[in-house]
Amino acid sequence: MADGNIIKNFEALATTALRRDALMIAQAGLEGVDTARALEEMVHFEDGRLCIGGKICTVEVPERIFFIAVGKCAAASATTIERLLGERLTRGIVLDVSHSAMCKNLRLEKIECFMGTHPIPSQSNVDATHQILALLSDLTPRDAVIMLISGGGSTLLCQPPEGMTCNDEADLFKELTHRGASIQELNTVRKHLSLARGGNLARAAYPAQVIGLIFSDVPGNSMEFIASGPTVRDTTTIEDARVVLARYGIPHESLPLLETPKEDTYFDHVQNILVVDNMRGLHAMKRKAEELGYGARIVTDALCGEAHDVARRIAGELHAAEQKTALLYGGETVVTIEDASSADGGRNQELVIAALAQVREGEAIISFDSDGRDNSDYAGGIADKVTLSHVQEKHASIDEALASHASYTFFSKIGDAIVTGETGSNVSDLLVALKS
Questions:
Q1: Signed CA dihedral, 239, 240, 245, 249: sign only
Q2: 241 near 192, Cβ under 8 Å?
Q3: Kind of pairing, strands 64-70 and 143-150?
Q4: Are residues 340 and 246 in the same domain?
Q5: pTM for this predicted structure
Q6: First and final CA of the chain: distance in angstroms?
Q7: Domain assignment of residue 292, given as a range
Q8: pLDDT of 266-300, one tens digit each?
Q9: Phi/psi of residue 410, each to 5°?
């Protein structure tokens, strides 16, 4: 492998042939969902019209082209867009999450890069969103706007109505999350508490032509719930938001809920296209596995459930598989924590630790977050007999790590974590289970 591996500690981890194969398959998944690569494949011009793939073009040749990107794929898109659009690009804004160092390293001419906080909103999110709305406020039918929407955008697009602050929203969503609300439920409420979510960016850009490039991190790829659907006509209502709040026992009578735009006018010249989801990564992993001589199967793109339970299930499926098999999964598990005082790390690391108690000779399981941050600076980890030997050498305890949900501490002690840094991608988690 070249020194430019997305998995930065590839060579340090690839100490056996099985590990090397598993890591090559995992890296192929990350390459498959790479933001810049996807844009390079999709964005082009035909007869002066801006086109995305072979499906979507602007209605007319645009006089001006603007670019807006929001979410964990935003900063990674900026340089590529400036290069692809060249002099045709008028101006742009990208809004990414604050732990990304990408903005600092960009050399941009026409695109401004802003950093906001995630998963909790802050005033920096509000200020950057205001800049986006201001940019969209004076467009004409002869203008075109590319809007790249990716995971994390819900929190970033914080533009609360009068009578509410970003801190109020932060408290509300901490409570909803603590009480077990799903991402669809969270975003149903979010859409009715911001002037930039739930189709509101499409309304702000009216009457310009809008092409929404959707990078999905939501199982099922429902566009109106990806980053709370800022370019998509919302099917939920204020009443739906109230139902969610009531379901979790949260008082809502005084909340200044907003109705999202429903009028056809704002969406007549809006075209949304799903550009990247986890199936793109899974297919890339499948191709690499087959290239390496494995019989590969995509088991699911909607993996869910408690991480430790999912680990046992996947290990069982791997035990039952034939030799030279690669089982591939995408989705997001959960980790239910009662006492967070000692917890650290994320669901991928916890799944791998749980798999360690199940994995057999000639088997390896890698689970990792496509954005490179599994609630820490590790993307995930690898479970095999080599990892088990490190557990024994370092006198670590699998049971204690699972009981305390201290997966980051565990991997910091034994090694065997997957390290990528910020990938600039975000399509949920990916997992490869390999049998030699």
A1: positive
A2: yes
A3: parallel
A4: no
A5: 0.91
A6: 20
A7: 10-33+281-435
A8: 999 999 999 999 999 999 999 999 999 999 999 99
A9: -60, -50
